[in-house]
Amino acid sequence: MAAPVAESSTMYSVSVIGASGYSGAELTRLLLQHPKVELQELYAFSQADKRVSDLYPLLSSNKVYKPYCGESGSDIYFLALPHGEALQLVPPLVAAGKRVIDLSGDFRLKSVVEHEQFYKQPKSPESVMTYGMAELFRDEIVKAKAISNPGCFATSIILGVAPLFAGSESGIKVRAINCTSTSGISGAGRSSKTELSFAEMSENVRAYKVGVHQHIPEIMQALGTSATTPSFDFTFTPMIGSLVRGIYSILTIQLEKPVETERIRSLYNGFYPTNRAPFVRLRDTMTEVRHVAHTNFCDIHIAHASASGSLVIVTAIDNLLKGAAGQAVQNMNLMLGLDETTGLSF
Prior knowledge:
The protein is of the alpha/beta class. The protein is built from 11 helices and 13 strands. It folds into 2 domains: 12-149 and 324-335, Rossmann fold (3-Layer(aba) Sandwich); 154-317, 2-Layer Sandwich (Dihydrodipicolinate Reductase, domain 2), CATH 3.30.360.10. Helix content is 27%, strand content 22%. Helix 3 links the parallel strand 3 (76-79) and strand 4. The longest helix is centred in the first third of the chain and has 12 residues, at 22-33.
């Protein structure tokens, strides 16, 4: 567990914009049970005026979704909206002194060129916020007022390879990374698209956006390089499979020279100490999606290291929790000076 943090009795009011989607529903569930916040408003667009419990009976909440017409006095705002919509809503909230955590990709990338290339949307140079991956950028998150929550695929891949980029003193140099990641259908959002229907996806797996997925520049940025001028070869094949939730990533890394498995394990253990990375678990045996489903954990298994310098690492997360709502609450905890595991015990 993380090191104890001196916590006050202060309660914070929280609202969610885009609360009726899958990530918004998970946020609602986590915030309703969080001991340090009071859930004030749930905003939605197509589901406005509907009762939460009618849409998600398991939430057992009598709250009603409202259309968003401007900030309502909450201390903290989460935004769980489609890409492009937060660009207009976040600046007024920040200007009003609100803490903001955005789950879209609108504020993740520093490069305007890469944002416009991969998201196909215009963006101003100042539209960047602190990247909310606690295991890598804790000190920045603690001081931030506005956080851009990482993407789900990006989380599963970055956490899986970040220790290999820890510094030149390790003597490890990455030449290439090939990622194949399979996501549950919920990763596409609460959509009525035909290709996501049960009849289309049952007993089925398919690849999509190969080489052009919007999480590619985010991954490269977090690893200290860029998608346009990469310092190593990077290939990403995202896939969607016939499961509701979860991301399972197979990361095949080519190193400049061979490294023993035990040395890799030691490197990862040092990079992810339990007091600084309470939600990263290094497994000695193969991980599976069911090991992390409905939790905020990222499981990492170092599966193979060959004499030719290739390395295979397998990661698993719940795309709706560690890949979205759970990580967002983890970031909120750090922003508020709370133990980052608060409200996230499973």
